[in-house]
Amino acid sequence: MVTAPTSSHREPSPARAKLKTEGYAKGDAARQRVLDAALLAFGQAGFKGATTRQIAEQAGVQLPAIAYYFGNKDGLYLACAHEVIARYRARVGQAAEHALALLQPPRPTDTPSPRSAQQAYDALSQLIHALVGLLVGSSESQRWTAFIAREMGSPGPAYQLLYRDLWAPGVDLVTRLIARVQGPADDTPAALAQARVQAVLLISSLVRFQSGRELALQLLQWPRIGPDECATIAAVLLAPLQPAQR
């Protein structure tokens, strides 16, 4: 005997499917609002100073939403770090991948390229321009550079995550590019140490530039930081690193 299908086996109606999709979209939007509010709150007050209640109010959600999306305050803080890393990779990833490919060891059949220093400088220039655009020229970074600066100055729960997935590989990449620009003759422990200092100063200066944005604008007498200003900043940073003419 054939029976009619029960409600549990029915295909969802278009209206119900639409409501489900809208529900997911609203959930994603609420989660993002919490992340944005948390990045700002943690950047301003630190992990201990910011409260989940304040973050929920700023994000326009009920307090249980934080537990639903992130588990607890620690989970929210680590999610902020993952969000920052994801934004870095989205904006700088292409330039970083190009630089990493350039730095791969040559095959035995490859002939040395007399332009290797210039190629390294070009890759470094592309990477620095991308970093300047993200850290200084982007309005979105204003929401989370204080979070980064606070972790740098006063390590919190996200420090090791940021160090492992962002700072250490970023500084290592810039160090290797600077060393390649300087040439094989400078491939010594002392020269590599100097290149690493240059890389740390270069990257940290961009973070500090953004965290002191208003002061920088006043001192430079710039009404804003647009493409031209970003190009000027990148050019100044790159000027001491240009390869010597051989």
What does this structure look like?
- With 246 residues, this protein is mostly helical.
- It has a domain at 80-104 and 115-241: Tetracycline Repressor, domain 2 (Orthogonal Bundle).
- Helix content is 72%, strand content 0%.
- It has ten helices and no strands.
- It has helices at residues 14-49, 52-59, 64-70, 73-102, 116-135, 145-153, 159-182, 189-211, 213-220, 227-238.
- Helix 4 (73-102) runs parallel beside helix 7.
- It is globular and about 60 Å long.
- Residues 8-23 have a biased composition (Basic and acidic residues).
- This is HTH tetR-type domain-containing protein.
- Residues 51-70 bind DNA.
- InterPro entries: Homeodomain-like_sf (IPR009057), HTH-type_TetR-like_transc_reg (IPR050109), HTH_TetR (IPR001647), Tet_transcr_reg_TetR-rel_C_sf (IPR036271), Tscrpt_reg_YbiH_C (IPR015292).
- It comes from Comamonas serinivorans.
Short description, anyone?
The chain has 246 residues and is mainly alpha-helical. It is built from 10 helices and no strands.
- Mean pLDDT over the residues: 84
CATH topology of the domain at 80-104 and 115-241: Tetracycline Repressor, domain 2
CATH superfamily of the domain at 80-104 and 115-241: Tetracycline Repressor, domain 2
Low-pLDDT parts are: 1-9, 13-25
The count of helical stretches stands at 10
**Would you count the extended β strands for me?**
0
Please give the alpha-carbon distance between the first and last residues.
90 Å
Radius of gyration: 24 Å
Overall spatial form: globular
Order of helices and strands: HHHHHHHHHH
Helix content: over 70%
How is the main sheet built?
A: none
Structural class: mainly alpha
> What top-tier CATH class of the domain at 80-104 and 115-241 fits best?
Mainly Alpha
Give the second-level CATH assignment, the architecture of the domain at 80-104 and 115-241: Orthogonal Bundle
Strand content: under 5%
Organism: Comamonas serinivorans
Protein name: HTH tetR-type domain-containing protein
Pfam family, one: TetR_N
GO molecular function, one term: DNA-binding transcription factor activity
